[in-house]
Amino acid sequence: SSPFRSAAVLSDSYSAEASELADIEWDNLGFGFIPTDYMYMMKCTQGGNFSKGELQRFGNIELSPSSGVLNYGQGLFEGLKAYRKEDGNVLLFRPEENALRMRLGAERMCMLSPTVEQFVEAVKETVLANKRWVPPPGKGSLYIRPLLMGSGAVLGLAPAPEYTFLIFVSPVGNYFKEGVAPINLIVEHELHRATPGGTGGVKTIGNYAAVLKAQSAAKAKGYSDVLYLDCVNKKYLEEVSSCNIFMVKGNVISTPAIKGTILPGITRKSIIDVARSQGFQVEERLVPVDELLDADEVFCTGTAVVVSPVGSVTYKGKRVSYGEDGFGTVSQQLYSVLTRLQMGLIEDKMNWTVEL
Ligand code: COI
């Protein structure tokens, strides 16, 4: 029999099982992988379209040793979160933005990708099938990880003849081991994350492998993560290994402009809109690293990190500190508005949330 079961068939069996909370310790979730019940799979061959995908029990997948993703890195991922509301319903945050970003990335990587509707529908089905893993309100969120990979076999360098779209989920809490305490960054001035004309602006898996060396070295020295500079001038801020960066000075909030080497974060874009709605002036521009010296506050944004305050930045041996005990007032305000919106605690005037 087929390892795949249709969502309709599954829905009867999982609805009972998914209605009660999973039996795990919900306090102090970090950002480690916890296996859940179901994953979503959908395949497409070159020249065709993605056909109706299916939920299946979470588990290992089969892949040709000659697949495009394993040999030539033809892969993309996304990240989004689902929060449980007090009434038990679940909220997704801007899932169509992730769908669109995956389509742009697929174009850059010569991959076929699901339509926005297919992506969003698949996310909803996967979250509902795993509903018992969505943490109780205030305990965290369900991290949703869509993957797109060249699963077809190739030997010579070429786009793979088949693509697999897969979604798995895992309950998460804070990303950094510091919890909600400020993180300490070190500016990397030799290794680079991205180059003009490269793939830094899309969420391809190789971008993340490329930062592991600098990140590991930084962690070994006690830093939380690495802040990258542009590779041409070695002067302008780009991003942190897994998140975007913002700087606050008075009423002005600055963040590096999106210009092909920076990942267009959905939390980044949302925070810009939230900040403007709160009366701040937001500038997307070239931000010289020297400006960090007299910033009032520095913070990072990302789906995984949400809004994380930066307690210090070290650049060429010089350490600059910003309130090392907690959030600065501006980052606290932005964090609070964004997360209350994501959790359904304030009215969603932006129409960003999708209720399940
Ligand atoms: C996210 O924030 O969702 C990401 O994709 C970053 C990842 C390295 C955890």
UniProtKB/TrEMBL annotation:
GO MF entry, a single one: branched-chain-amino-acid transaminase activity
Transmembrane segments: none
Enzyme class at the top of the EC tree: transferase
EC number: 2.6.1.42
GO cellular component, as recorded: chloroplast
Cofactor: pyridoxal 5'-phosphate
Tagged with keyword Amino-acid biosynthesis: yes
UniProt entry tagged with the keyword Amino-acid biosynthesis: yes
GO biological process, one term: branched-chain amino acid biosynthetic process
Keywords, comma-separated and alphabetical: Amino-acid biosynthesis, Aminotransferase, Branched-chain amino acid biosynthesis, Pyridoxal phosphate, Transferase
Sites bearing N6-(pyridoxal phosphate)lysine, chain numbering: K203
Catalytic activity annotation: L-valine + 2-oxoglutarate = 3-methyl-2-oxobutanoate + L-glutamate; L-leucine + 2-oxoglutarate = 4-methyl-2-oxopentanoate + L-glutamate; L-isoleucine + 2-oxoglutarate = (S)-3-methyl-2-oxopentanoate + L-glutamate
Superkingdom classification of source: Eukaryota
Family designation: Belongs to the class-IV pyridoxal-phosphate-dependent aminotransferase family.
Protein name per Swiss-Prot or TrEMBL: Branched-chain-amino-acid aminotransferase
Organism annotation: Durio zibethinus (Durian)
Span of the entire protein shown here: 70 to 425 of 426
